[in-house]
Automatic annotation (TrEMBL):
The chain crosses the membrane at residues 26-46, 58-77, 89-113, 125-148, 168-188, 194-213. InterPro entries: Cation_efflux (IPR002524), Cation_efflux_TM (IPR058533), Cation_efflux_TMD_sf (IPR027469), CDF_Transporter (IPR050291). Belongs to the cation diffusion facilitator (CDF) transporter (TC 2.A.4) family. Its main location: membrane. GO terms for biological process: intracellular zinc ion homeostasis. It comes from the Bacteria. The lineage of its organism: Bacteria, Pseudomonadati, Pseudomonadota, Alphaproteobacteria, Caulobacterales. This is Cation diffusion facilitator family transporter.
Length: 317
């Protein structure tokens, strides 16, 4: 069994209420902008009988719902750990990122399926001039928001803001495709080929769905790894390298590590095994060793939950 005098645990996590408040403000701004554009897009899509334009609006509405949930999650994360969630609420970040990516993936797949159905039963798009104006303006707004959110997140390193910035980029690319679609519609009608108009909207719908699909799939893969608790390879290698050097420096016979990541918080558990149970190590030295490890970890990420165990019994590995 573990010797209580020779084994001790330190848990260290960092966070800032100011950072969380700034995140909430950014997400609230994003939600307000998104819901405004989405309602306008759905309304114009129904008016112009454009399923591609309706897709753009629906895509934004789904994203707005996730953004609202993200704001609520940040309030819980800011509270820190409590009696029920003793490691805090950091797990909500990858959970929401996974839900967001899954929802947007479903929207893209539905767009492709609906576009194929539109090719089989074509219906002409009306008022493409007004739709082109909306698509062009929405593209500019989406690109501006993407740059703003990405720039604001450089210091915050928030998974929620990163996903939100990606959503703005995806939406901007979608509306850019719509702008091209309605521009082509104008050219086709100008050259006296109105029969082709019915096929442009579903073709662009399919192209947009396929072009946008890789982005939420990439987010789904990355956030899914965290949601399932799979050890991140980069963190695992970093911790192993740090612990190997510390074990060599302080003459420990063996060492073992376990790591996981939940949003911005990294969980690191380390076990250091002494060569002999007769070895005496002071608490001040154990604190020094922990401080060395924590300093190395903090150089890469300021947010971590660190546990360091000391023992002479390999059964505790």
């Amino acid at each position: 069994m573990r010797d209580s005098a020779a084994a001790t645990t330190e848990r260290h996590s960092t966070g800032s209420a100011d950072v969380h408040r700034r995140e909430r403000r950014l997400l609230l701004l994003s939600a307000l902008m998104t819901v405004s554009l989405s309602c306008l897009g759905v309304g114009l899509g129904l008016l112009a009988r454009s399923k591609a334009l309706c897709l753009d609006g629906f895509y934004g509405l789904v994203d707005t719902i996730i953004t609202g949930l993200s704001i609520a999650a940040l309030r819980l994360i800011e509270r820190g750990e409590d009696q029920r969630f003793q490691f805090g609420y950091w797990h909500l970040e990858p959970m929401l990122a996974t839900a967001n990516a899954a929802a947007l993936t479903s929207v893209c797949l539905y767009a492709v399926a609906d576009g194929l159905a539109g090719l089989l039963n074509p219906a002409p798009t009306a008022n493409f001039g007004l739709s082109a104006i909306y698509a062009g303006a929405s593209t500019l707004v989406g690109l501006a928001m993407q740059f703003y959110m990405r720039g604001s997140n450089r210091a915050l390193r928030s998974q929620l803001l990163r996903v939100d910035a990606q959503s703005w980029l995806v939406g901007a690319l979608l509306t850019l495709g719509l702008f091209v679609s309605f521009g082509l519609s104008w050219l086709v009608s100008s050259f006296g080929r109105p029969g082709w108009l019915a096929y442009i909207d579903p073709l662009v719908l399919i192209a947009a769905g396929l072009a946008l699909l890789p982005t939420p799939l990439s987010t789904l893969r990355r956030s899914g790894v965290e949601f399932l608790g799979i050890a991140p390879a980069d963190l695992d290698q970093q911790v192993r390298a740090i612990v190997a050097e510390v074990a060599r420096r302080h003459d420990f016979a063996r060492a073992n590590t376990h790591v996981s990541r939940a949003g911005r918080l990294q969980f690191v558990e380390i076990v250091l095994v002494a060569a002999s149970g007769e070895r005496t190590v002071s608490f001040s030295l154990m604190d020094q060793i922990r401080a060395e490890i924590a300093e190395e970890l903090a150089s890469a990420s300021p947010r971590f939950w660190l546990t360091v165990d000391f023992t002479a019994d390999v059964r505790w590995l």
